[in-house]
Amino acid sequence: MPATHHPKVPAWPPKSAPRLFVAETLAMGAVVRIEGNPAHYLARVMRAAPGDVVILCDDVTGEWAARVAEVTKRDVVLEVVEMLRLREAMPDLWLCPALLKKDRFDLILEKATELGVSRIAPVITRRCVADKLNLDRARAITTEAAEQCARTALPQLAEPVKLDALLSGWSTERALFFADEAGGEPAAAAFAAHQGPAAILTGPEGGFDDAERAAIRAHPAARPVTLGPRILRGETAAIAALSVWMASAGDW
Length: 252
Prior knowledge:
Blueprint: E1 19-21, E2 31-35, H1 36-45, E3 53-57, E4 62-71, E5 75-86, E6 93-97, H2 102-115, E7 119-120, E8 123-124, H3 135-149, E9 156-157, E10 161-162, H4 163-168, E11 175-179, E12 185-186, H5 187-193, E13 198-202, H6 210-218, E14 222-226, H7 234-248
Parallel strand pairs: 1-3, 6-7, 6-13, 7-9, 8-10, 11-13, 11-14, 12-14
Antiparallel strand pairs: 2-5, 3-4, 4-5
Helix pairs in contact: 2-3, 2-7, 5-7
């Protein structure tokens, strides 16, 4: 007998469904009103219509499927219809990058989120060309990156602090891997051998000065590591170090 061909069942949820983080804690049957730029994105860019599926995350419970109930000129109303995934468990890894020029630091925020860090704690050093960070803008970047890479948890984002303040308040229970261009243990080996909470500290354009390097090395939690024989830009060092960590000790 000829084989029977059954129609394909559409993927659920649709792979093309837009993804958004929302402030509300989600639950089955909840009604969520999307306003502002996210509403414009759904209605004007994605052309969302009643019945369409939108993926929602709340950074508390996890990931949910919702259906569009109504689209108006000002907002989009969604009804939560199914839980898809619990909030993910993140590797207990922080990134402490020295502040860089805006476009380069934006890249760190985006890629650190995509690579899975649990916290981003910017640092101000003597050679930093910037000493301020617009936290609202930075959170928008990390949120958009999390939506793009299908994270169900957002990284925490801390206010920038000066290096001496970071070191004085640092717990010895969290290893501080210091990307030191002057040399150290190969990063891959150091990361693979470590168990427990950790953070990676990367420098600014021009690197840490001698006094800063000495202060970091003197801290009992600090572990100098090398990222290879070449001098890396600040954003490259942060992304490279995170990639090595995730491959050797993270969740890849």
